[in-house]
Each structure stands twice: as structure tokens, then as C-alpha cells.
Design goal:
Strands 1, 5, 6, 8, 21, 23 and 24 form a seven-stranded mixed beta sheet that branches. Strands 4-7-22-9-20 form a five-stranded antiparallel beta sheet, with no helix packed on it. Helices cover 4% and strands 38% of the residues. By secondary structure, the protein is mainly beta.
Length: 426
């Protein structure tokens, strides 16, 4: 919105990863951030200061850092910016994607109940026939969205015990609420449309372990020895833990039932005693938006957002990434900021730095540390990041760029000074 003055509040601290603490395994984890897959603070490269956050993919397909920030309400605009860097020595390779995510969690004070599942298909299931697996649950208060999940779950194999499972097939998925028990809330329920590639059956979304190679849940048609329960196509599970899910609207207080037919072949049976398959209900949304704004292949693309870097992005340079999102009416959420290097396998290093999350319409002034005051702390930070017209914004400059022209200039200083409040008592 260039030219329009907007009051702003910065709600993400330590976004340049300058401060870190050793964890129990001797790794430097940026203060205030949670690490998954082994992401750490790094001094290899930095866009601001002397450090960055490193998400290094070697054997884990999901590596990154996240932290929860604040709960916001309807119509709040969230502006996120950061820099990402992948070196030529370990560049991004397909199918890996990396970038920032904006995840929506239940508003503070509201907890999601645990999933409900029925993993009844196992080594004892009959061969060469379709078996119906079903699960039902009452929709909890405050929940208006759920995931209907079809899953083949493989307990981790000891290194000296090979994976023995044959292929598993599923078809004719169904989900209904008690008020309309004959109305299927799922689309593409028999997997007739789409392709056999990754996430080739929209609106179904695939998830899968990165190992063993070949793990997945993909469309297959006219499979020998597997006549479809409905139509010509099925979903075929291979390798380790994999599945597909679809988001559906639900109504609190009603009973949700999810079911699907599962089958295995006598010629290649589903016979690993450590494997279970079936259906699952995950409560995924209520008064908060869904889905998250993610990196592909599960992206929720929105206007003003370029939140990923790919194999086509330049190496050995800091690439800007951003998300610009406004909360829908009647929605609220706890905001989670995430940087991630995901959807391997591959050998890739991605560094992140200068991560800012600014709310543009909740505070009348410039609040760099989210204390709901425009005071000397904010003026001191403005002095450090001021650049003058035409220069690139520094880290923490975003909260002062009120006309959103990408530079800090005298008009931004004036806007900030005119709205000084001094310290505000908690």
C-alpha cells in the first residue's frame, strides 16, 4: 500500500537469530525459537549481525525453526519479511522447497482435542477383498473444520529388520455429519480425477515419510488384482508411513463419521506386524483460518506473498521472502512464525535472517518491541535502522516504514515522533 501511512507493531523478537543457547545435545538454538529436524544458529552467513538460522537437510525432510507470537483478531493485517540464502555448495534441489510459513493456531486459551482414529487394517486383515474401516466422533465446541485422514502407519523398523510390507490400497472414502448422514463432505472421494504424481489428487493432500525411498500415497488406476470399490481408480500406499487428508467443514455438537475401504493382495500382502492402516479425524480449525500459509506443495497462495525459494532461486545471495495477509472477518488466531526447509530428500542448506512480523493496523505509532508504547526504546531502534531515502530497509526497519515504499525517510520519522506516548504501565 505505498503512500498510505499505516501504524505498525513488530511482534517477532530475535528474528535475526543473534541470541542462542546450547541445548542438551550441544546445539545452539536461537533464543525464543523452537527447533525441529536439527535447525540451529549459524555463523556461516548472515544478512544482519553475525548470525542466521540454518536449516540443513541431510536425512530429515523437515528442518526449521518456529515460534508463537501473539493472538490477533479479525481484519488484522500481518506483514512478514525475511531473507533466505542457499549456497552453491549445497543448493536447493527438487523437490525441496524452503521459505517462511504463517501458521494459525487456536487462540490463546483454546486447546484442540486429540485426534480420533481407527487403524483396524493390519496383518490379520483378509486378502483380496475390500474391508470397510470407520471412525466416529462428536465435533468439539469451537471447532468448525476437521481433516479426514486415510493413513498407512509403519512403526520405525530397527536397522537390521527390513521393511516387509506389500502395497495397500484404499477407495470410496466417505465423511458425513449426523444431520445429513447420506451427504458426503469429501470430493474426489474415489480418486478418479487427478494424476499419479505427488499431490496429484486434489483436494486430497499427501503426506509421507522421506524414507524408505518410494514411500507415498498416490493415485493408481486399473490395478491388476485390485478392482476398484468405486470407479476405476484407488489410492496406493507404498513404503513407510504415508497417507492423504482432506479438510472439511464441521458443526460443533454433531457426530462426524469418516470411513474408507482398504484392500491388500495375496501376491504382495500387507503383512508387516509393525504396520497399521485406517482412518483418522484430526480437529484442525475453528474460529481461526485454515489452511496455513505454507511452502509448496501445501501452499495457500495469497496476493502479495512470495514466501519460498526454490532450486531456480539464485545461490550465494540473500533472497527476500514475504507474506502479506489480512485476517478474515469473524476469525482470530495465535500466530506462529516458521522458517522451514522441507520436502526432501536431498542435501541442502538454507539460511534465514532478518525475520520480521509486523501488524499494521493495531497500534497508532511505531512499536518495535510490542510493549504497546511508543517510547525511547522505539526511538533508539529507529536511530539504528534509519537509512534515508532510496536505501534498502535494515532489519527492524519494517515497523517504521509507514508509507511502505521500502525505505526509511524523514516522513517516517515525523510519523513516529508525532505518535510518541512514552512508557505505558502494564
Amino acid at each position: 500500500m505505498p503512500g498510505l501511512a499505516l501504524a505498525r507493531q513488530q511482534v517477532l523478537s530475535n528474528g535475526s537469530y543473534e541470541f542462542a543457547t546450547l541445548d542438551g545435545e550441544g546445539r545452539l538454538i536461537p533464543d525464543g525459537w523452537n527447533s525441529f529436524g536439527g535447525a540451529v544458529q549459524s555463523a556461516d552467513f548472515a544478512w544482519d549481525g553475525g548470525f542466521s538460522g540454518l536449516a540443513s537437510v541431510r536425512t530429515d525432510a523437515y528442518v526449521g525453526l518456529y515460534r508463537d507470537t501473539v493472538t490477533v483478531g479479525a481484519n488484522t493485517r500481518i506483514l512478514m519479511k525475511a531473507r533466505a540464502y542457499h549456497p552453491a555448495a549445497f543448493p536447493i534441489v527438487e523437490p525441496i522447497k524452503a521459505g517462511m510459513k504463517l501458521e494459525f493456531r487456536p487462540p490463546e486459551g483454546l486447546e484442540l482435542p486429540p485426534p480420533v482414529e481407527n487403524l483396524a487394517f493390519d496383518v490379520n486383515a483378509p486378502l483380496d477383498q475390500w474391508v470397510l474401516v470407520s471412525v466416529s466422533a462428536v465435533v468439539p465446541n469451537g471447532v468448525t473444520s476437521a481433516k479426514a485422514v486415510l493413513i498407512s502407519f509403519e512403526f520405525p523398523d530397527p536397522p537390521d529388520v527390513p521393511l516387509t510390507n506389500g502395497q495397500l490400497f484404499a477407495d470410496a472414502a466417505f465423511a458425513a455429519l449426523s444431520s445429513n448422514p447420506s451427504v458426503n463432505l469429501l470430493t474426489n472421494e474415489s480418486f478418479e480425477t487427478g494424476t499419479s504424481g505427488q499431490n496429484g489428487m486434489p483436494p486430497w493432500i499427501e503426506f509421507a515419510d522421506s524414507v524408505p525411498v518410494g514411500t507415498g500415497a498416490r493415485k493408481a488406476c486399473l490395478v491388476s488384482g485390485v478392482p476398484a470399490q468405486n470407479g476405476n481408480c484407488v489410492v496406493r500406499f507404498t513404503g513407510g508411513t504415508a497417507g492423504v487428508f482432506q479438510e472439511i467443514p464441521v458443526t460443533p455438537g454433531e457426530t462426524l463419521t469418516v470411513s474408507a475401504y482398504f484392500r491388500t493382495r495375496a501376491s504382495s500382502p500387507y503383512n508387516d506386524p509393525r504396520a497399521l492402516a485406517g482412518v483418522k479425524i484430526e480437529w484442525s480449525g475453528g474460529s481461526w483460518p485454515t489452511p496455513d500459509i505454507d511452502v509448496v506443495p501445501n501452499a495457500n497462495p495469497i496476493s502479495g506473498t512470495t514466501n519460498i525459494i526454490t532450486a531456480a532461486s539464485p545461490t550465494d545471495t540473500w533472497v527476500p521472502i514475504s507474506i502479506d495477509y489480512t485476517m478474515p472477518a469473524n476469525k482470530s488466531a495465535l500466530l506462529r512464525a516458521t522458517v522451514i526447509n522441507a520436502f526432501g530428500p536431498g542435501n541442502t542448506d538454507v539460511y534465514f535472517d532478518g525475520f520480521e512480523m509486523v501488524l499494521t493496523n493495531v497500534f497508532n505509532g511505531s512499536d518495535v518491541n510490542a510493549d504497546n508504547a511508543a517510547d525511547l526504546i522505539d526511538i533508539a531502534a529507529l536511530q539504528r535502522v534509519y537509512t534515508g531515502p532510496g536505501a534498502e530497509l535494515k532489519y527492524l526497519g519494517l515497523v517504521y516504514d509507514h508509507d511502505e515504499n521500502g525505505a526509511l525517510e524523514p516522513s517516517d520519522v515525523t510519523y513516529t515522533l508525532e505518535r510518541m506516548t512514552g512508557p505505558v504501565n502494564p
